[in-house]
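Hey, can you fold this one?
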Amino acid sequence: MSTQIISIIGLVLIFLCATLRSVNMGAVAFLGTFLLGTFVFGTSEDDVFAGFPGDLFVVLVGVTLLFAIAKYNGTVDWLVHTGVRAVRGRIALIPWVMFLVTGLLTMVGAVVPGAVAMMAPIGLNFAARYRISPMLMGLLIINGASAGGFSPISIFGSITNGVVERSGLPGNPVLLWISSLLFNTLLSIVVFFLFGGRKLLDRRVTTEALPQDEHTGEPGGTTTTARTGTAVLTEVTTLNTQRSATLAGLLVLAVGALVLEFDVGLLSMSIATVMILLWPQTTKKCVAEVAWPTVLLICGVVTYVGLMESVGTIDHLGNSVAGIGIPLLAAFVICLIGSGVSAFASTTGILGALIPLAVPFLHTGQVGAVGLIIALAISSSVVDSSPFSTSGALVVASTPEDDRDATFKGLMVWGMSMILVAPVLSFTLFVLPGWL
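Sure. Predicted structure:
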């Protein structure tokens, strides 16, 4: 059996073990890298570690640390409350506020599951109190996370653009982001009217303020509180020094990365560290809130893919796809694989694994590289609505118990349908016309 086939079997086993045993895929990938690299392929330790993505590690730690600080000090709550006030209590617009805020969070660096974990309890409490469909609220939160998730300074965007750059492929980070944003926005419009949004158009909500500030202890905070059963939703409604500094830091990150082209990881780590130095007592716990499981997952999978590349598996698979003989069919198969696997596994892991597999095929020039990368990214992320994916599971968990079973079944039907719908639509829009 060739080394290429062995490494492919190893990748399949990594996905199966991680999925069936509910363990971190990155840890299993490191195990596979060590066992196959050392005892089967005879790869040296230096060559194994050469595949470790040090730059990506800094990006993941830096942006998730900054997001953890924004979450802990109440900046995220302030953004949510500001959004609700901006729509003047119109219930029909509340799901769109959740879409927008979740998108902003992932756009500036929050991992998609982290942003959904933050927004789903808030959004589903709103849904229960104001009789909004849990499917409507949950899907807009998930789609919002995907809409912002491919910005040049986001986790998905950094992973995708980093793999594209390292592979020597032409890329367009801004177009990738805008395409994902527009696709998820249009998809959310369909969701809105499909799950009862029309009935919400004439309804309004009012809020009441309570003088307190639970997050930082600084004076001058007020909150609005909504109660559903035993759940209490608290939103910070005023800015204090720490929240203002956090907003300024997020703005500096956006400008520095997008306009001045500073390294996203180093810049976000620097901003987060300044915040920790200024407020050590209220931010020291945030280091533990870094998305370490995601860091482990991504670094493990990318390291294993590096091993596959070193033994020639990437070229072998890419040539096999190209050998289908019909370039457009091969491109569609790649998108279909991405959506099918991602519905049951980590999207971040899929992005790190599948794009390199398509590199040899893309280097042939038979299909536009930018268009296929966009289609693959959308196909792999839209299916996060599956209840077997992290984001979908978070929505189900945040739904009130009476509606939980119905929401699970609804997301299962929707998520499974997206396995086919997302590749078909994204392939038709970005690959078939040949304009990218």
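Residues 208-234 have pLDDT under 50 and may be disordered. Let me know if you want another pass with a different chain boundary.
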